[in-house]
Structure formats: structure tokens, C-alpha cells
Amino acid sequence: MAILNSGIKANDTGCLKVDGKWTKIQDKKEGIVYLTPSVEYAGHPRYAQVWKIKSKYVQLVLQVRVHKRRIFDKSFGKQDETLLSRSVRIDPHFSNDELEWTINWPPLACMSVKDGIIVYGLMLRVTDHDPAELPQNAWWKSVAEECNNPVLIGEQQQIPVV
């Protein structure tokens, strides 16, 4: 996995709250690394693609550590979740207004351990059922379409099995 060698690549698309309004990142001069303290939030298909492998459904989430100097840096921020699921609490351990942590970073540039972020774990969800049907993911149905990637809930990519 290249990400373990190179680091996390900043996204050049997405949503941010600017002056209290949601806006899409369209200026390719800006990039963002999205993080969350919530594995429930990270498990949404926008962030963790669902693959169907044989009869199982699989998702992968990276577990990262962020150095405290990065958290207190001006480029770091916390914001409301951008899935716009305002009416439903996504994770019982966190309020919806602290689910996204963002770090401004040059678009498509990698952020590595020397930059204050390190991948130290891989978390897999393997189920017999589509994750969209799991009780803990009922909140997925309340996600707004605005600022959403084209990944559709319940649509999986078939991975060839070798």
C-alpha cells in the first residue's frame, strides 16, 4: 500500500464551512486532508468504499495519529460533518459538529510522519450483509445529496478474486 510509504494525499475536492456557509472546494490551489475521531463516520461509503468480495462486504478505514503540533497549527480545524445529516446523531460518542477534522495542505501532495501525521492501523469491516443495511448505519439514509461524492449507498464495486 503506497499510502504507508508516501503518506496521506490531500484531497482537491470536498466541502468546507466558510463564514458559516457550506462551500465546495473548487480552487485547485487548496487541498484538504479529512480526518475524524469517529469510526462510525469514517465508515460511510463517501470515505470507506464498500467492496463485495465473494459473498462478503468489506470496508477499510485507516487509523492515524496526529501530532499535537499539527492540531494547534492554523491549518488545522474542526467542523460540522459534511454529509449534512443534521437531524440524526451519527455517533453516540461525538456530537455532529466535531466529526470532521481538516488540515489544509497543498492539493494532491502527501502528508507524512514528518508533517505530523502517521498511519498506524488498518481497520476492516467484513460483513455478510451490505453495510447500508446494518442497524448502526441507519443514519446513512438521512445523508443529503449536496456535497456528496458520486458513491451511491448500497452500490458496491465488484473486486476480482484471484
What does this structure look like?
Helix content is 8%, strand content 32%. It has three helices and eleven strands; from the N terminus they run αββββαββαβββββ. The model is unreliable at 146-162 (pLDDT under 50).
Shape: globular
Low-pLDDT runs: 146-162
The multimeric state of the shown protein is: single chain
The count of helical stretches stands at 3
**What is the tally of beta strands?**
11
Q: What is the makeup of the main sheet?
A: 4 strands, mixed
> What percent of residues adopt helix (DSSP H or I)?
under 10%
| Rounded radius of gyration (Å) | 16 Å
Strand order of the largest sheet: 10-6-5-11
What integer is the average pLDDT? 76
What's a concise summary of this model?
This protein is mainly beta and 162 residues long. The protein is built from three helices and eleven strands, in the order αββββαββαβββββ. The strands form four sheets. A four-stranded mixed sheet has the order 10-6-5-11. Strands 4-8-7 form a three-stranded antiparallel sheet, with no helix packed on it.
Which features does this protein show?
three-stranded antiparallel sheet; four-stranded mixed sheet; mainly beta; 3 helices; 162 residues; disordered C terminus; single chain; globular
Detail the topology: elements first, then pairings:
Blueprint: H1 2-6, E1 8-9, E2 15-18, E3 21-24, E4 32-35, H2 39-42, E5 51-53, E6 56-66, H3 68-71, E7 76-79, E8 100-104, E9 110-111, E10 117-127, E11 157-158
Parallel strand pairs: 5-11
Antiparallel strand pairs: 1-9, 2-3, 4-8, 5-6, 6-10, 7-8
